Amino acid sequence: MNDEAARVLVVGRSPSVLEEVVGRLRESGYRADVTNQFGEVLEDYDAGGIDVLVFGGMVPPDTKEFLREEVGRRNASVTVVQGMVGIPGVLAAQVDAATRGSGAAVVEYDETERTVRLELPEDARVTVEAFWMTSWTPPEPGSTSSMVFEGELAAGSREVVLPDRVPGEAAFVVVRVGGDARVFAVGSIPQAVTRMVPKSAADQRLPEVAKVSTRTFS
Among residues 35, 65, 98, which one ends one of the domains? Predict the structure, then answer.
């Protein structure tokens, strides 16, 4: 997929997360839009024009299934990405990972050792950035990030250990080797948070949010 022309639609809930992620994606060259109007997706956007469909974690499962089936029926080539967490930098990196391929480098994360391991076939510019949640208060979760490593690495086996400042819960690491991106979970999402996810479209446990619906393609 040509990432410079890729058309991305992010369906999520939090206005602040959606607004930041669409800015990040557009800065990276995508034709990106975001919406939290779940019932209007098929009316507002041309399913045949979506290259990457991203779902946020607070989208009800039946809504995701319906949209996945309907968009897929109208566009067999669409790539569907399940967002790992409501952090704009992580969501944008997941789109990069879905569109730009895995590249030749081998990148792995050792959860026990909290270590990123790389096998580089050639010299490359590498960044390792950690992201984690600081607040789960709906509808606007908070997060922060920290650059763990940024620089040129020679070909061969390399390791980057995550520092203690990166928590072991609700944290993620984005590894970029040249133009390729990989995203890894450092720690699981707390059960108290997963229980917030609406069980269906009729589940109204979460507070109302401001409408967000951008349009660059329809």
Answer: 98
